[in-house]
Design goal:
This protein is an alpha/beta fold. The protein has three domains: 199 residues, FAD/NAD(P)-binding domain (3-Layer(bba) Sandwich); 115 residues, 3-Layer(bba) Sandwich (FAD/NAD(P)-binding domain), CATH 3.50.50.60; 77 residues, Enolase-like, domain 1 (2-Layer Sandwich), CATH 3.30.390. Helix content is 23%, strand content 29%. The chain starts with a helix and ends in a 12-residue tail after the last helix. The structure holds flavin-adenine dinucleotide.
C-alpha cells in the first residue's frame, strides 16, 4: 500500500512498488466524481482488496454539471444523470454506504466511523469530500426562497421554483449563476444577475470573454448588473422577495439564487492533522502530507512544484477525475509517474457553450477567431509564440483540436491562426 511506497519527495519509490495484496482495505470518503473514480480506477489497476465508499447523500452517485444545465428528468432525476449504472458497484465488488457520512477517522488505528455507527478499518484512505457552497452573509440571506445549487436535492427545488415563478435574482456572475440565469430565461422568467466584479466569470476566463458574455446574456434578456453588490435580501410575506443593492436600489424577484463560489470541505482532514492550505494539500500523485492517505477533487489544492509555497485549486470534473486516477495509482502502488493532462472545463449557458483548455496567465499574444458578438468564436493565448490555452464559444471543433494539441505538446502558427478564412487545423505546426 502507499505507506510503503512514499519517498516523501513527491516521487514513487520504485523499489517498494510491489502492487496491492488481497488483504489491503481502502476506504473512500465521498461518493462524488472523485470518490467513484478512485474506486473504479483501483479496480482498473487490478487492486483486489476491499473498497468501501461512504457518501453522505442518499442518491446513487450522479453527475453534478447537469444540475445547472436543465438536463434533469422531472420524473426520474437520479437515473437521468447517474455516474455509473446500478450494477456497476456490485460487479466490481465496491461496497457503497450511501446516506451515511463518515464523522470520525482514527488515523492511528486505521478506521473510520460513520454517522450510523459503522466502523470500517483501512490500510489506505482516500478523501474525496468535495466542497460546500459559499454562503451569502447579508441580512435576510436565510429567508425561504434563497436557493443554492450544489446537489440533486437543490436542483429539484430550483426546478420547482422555475416552474412556479416569474422572476429571479441571481447573486454571482460565475458559471453556476449564469447557467441558472440561462435556465430561468429558457423557462420564461425575468432574470437579473448581480455581480460585484466589473466582468463576468472573472476568476476563470479572460476579460474579453467576460465582457462578451455580459453582452450575449443581455441580448438574451438577462439584466446583468456589474460592479454591484447585494447588501440585503428583503422579505415579503415571510419569504425572499428580492435584493437591495449597495447603491440602495431594490431589485424585486420571486426568489433568489446564490452562486458565489465554493469552499473545500476540510473538517475531517483538519481533525486528523493533514496539511491544509484552504484545501487539503496534495502533490501531483494526489498524496496528502500523511503516508497512506490520498485526496482528490474539490476538497484539495495541489502544491506547485515550480513555485514554492504556491498551491492551486481547480473545481472541475476533469480535475476531480484526473486526481482520482492518480490517487488510485498511489494507493495501489502503480509504478511510474502520475498522469498529467492540460486542465479543461466547460459551461453551458443556454445556447452559449463555453469550453476552456490550458491557461492564459502569462499570455503575451491573443488571437481571436470569429466574431465574438455572433456568439461563435475562439480566443487563443500564446506565450513566446507557443499556444498555452484557449477559450472557445460554440466552437467545439477548435476546442477538441486545441485540447489534443496542448496535451501532445504541439503548437499553432500564430500568423496562420490569425487568418480566419483558414480552418484552424491548417495553422497546426506539424
Ligand atoms: C451545479 C454545478 C454545475 C457544475 N458544472 C460543471 C461543469 O459544467 N463542468 C465542470 O467541469 N464542473 C462543473 N461543476 C463542478 C464539478 O461538479 C465539481 O468540480 C466536481 O463535482 C468535484 O467532484 P468531487 O468528487 O471533488 O466533489 P463532489 O462531486 O461534490 O462529491 C463529494 C461528495 O462527498 C460527500 N461528502 C463530503 N463529506 C463527506 C463525509 N464526511 N462522508 C461521506 N460523504 C461526504 C459530499 O456530500 C459529496 O456528495 C459543477 C458543479 C455544480 C455544483
Amino acid at each position: 500500500m502507499s505507506a510503503r511506497g512514499h519517498r516523501g519527495d513527491g516521487r514513487l519509490d520504485r523499489a517498494y512498488a510491489c502492487g496491492a495484496t488481497v488483504s489491503d482495505r481502502v476506504v473512500v470518503v465521498g461518493a462524488g466524481h472523485a470518490g467513484v473514480q478512485i474506486a473504479a480506477s483501483l479496480r482498473d489497476n487490478d487492486f483486489r482488496g476491499s473498497i468501501t465508499v461512504f457518501g453522505d447523500e442518499s442518491h446513487r452517485p450522479y453527475h453534478r454539471p447537469p444540475l445547472s444545465k436543465g438536463n434533469l428528468s422531472p420524473t426520474n432525476p437520479v437515473d437521468s444523470i447517474t455516474l455509473r449504472g446500478p450494477s456497476f458497484y456490485d460487479e466490481l465488488g465496491i461496497e457503497m454506504c450511501l446516506g451515511d457520512p463518515v464523522c470520525d477517522i482514527d488515523r492511528d488505528a486505521g478506521k473510520v466511523v460513520s454517522a450510523s455507527g459503522r466502523t470500517v478499518g483501512f490500510d489506505g484512505l482516500a478523501l474525496a469530500l468535495g466542497s460546500s457552497v459559499r454562503t451569502l452573509k447579508v441580512p435576510g440571506a436565510d429567508l425561504p426562497g434563497v436557493l443554492y445549487l450544489k446537489n440533486l436535492d437543490d436542483a429539484v427545488v430550483l426546478n420547482r421554483y422555475l416552474a412556479e415563478s416569474e422572476s429571479v435574482v441571481v447573486v454571482g456572475g460565475g458559471f453556476i449563476g449564469l447557467e441558472a440565469a440561462a435556465l430561468a430565461r429558457s423557462a420564461g422568467l425575468k432574470a437579473t444577475v448581480v455581480e460585484c466584479d466589473t466582468t463576468l466569470m472573472g476568476r476563470s476566463v479572460g476579460p474579453l470573454v467576460g465582457g462578451v458574455f455580459a453582452d450575449l446574456h443581455r441580448a438574451r434578456g438577462v439584466d446583468v448588473r456589474l460592479g454591484a453588490s447585494v447588501v440585503e435580501v428583503f422579505e415579503r410575506k415571510g419569504k425572499a422577495a428580492g435584493v437591495v443593492l449597495d447603491d440602495g436600489e431594490l431589485v424585486e424577484a420571486d426568489f433568489v439564487v446564490v452562486g458565489i463560489g465554493v469552499v473545500p470541505r476540510i473538517e475531517l482532514a483538519e481533525r486528523i492533522g493533514l496539511e491544509i492550505d484552504r484545501g487539503i494539500v496534495v502533490d501531483g500523485a494526489s498524496r496528502t502530507s500523511v503516508d497512506g492517505i490520498v485526496a482528490a477533487g474539490d476538497c484539495t489544492v495541489t502544491r506547485s512544484l515550480s513555485v514554492p509555497g504556491v498551491s492551486r485549486s481547480l473545481e472541475s470534473v476533469h480535475n476531480a477525475t484526473l486526481q482520482a486516477k492518480n490517487a488510485a495509482r498511489s494507493l495501489s502502488d502503480v509504478v511510474g509517474d502520475p498522469e498529467v493532462e492540460v486542465p479543461w472545463f466547460w459551461s453551458h449557458q443556454g445556447d452559449l457553450k463555453l469550453q476552456m483548455v490550458g491557461g492564459r496567465d502569462d499570455a503575451d499574444r491573443t488571437v481571436i477567431r470569429g466574431d465574438p458578438a455572433s456568439g461563435k468564436f475562439s480566443i487563443l493565448y500564446f506565450v513566446d509564440g507557443v499556444v498555452v490555452g484557449a477559450e472557445c464559444v460554440n466552437k467545439p471543433g477548435d476546442f477538441v483540436l486545441l485540447r489534443k494539441l496542448l496535451n501532445d505538446g504541439g503548437s499553432i502558427d500564430v500568423a496562420l491562426s490569425e487568418d480566419v478564412s483558414l480552418p484552424l487545423k491548417q495553422a497546426v505546426i506539424a
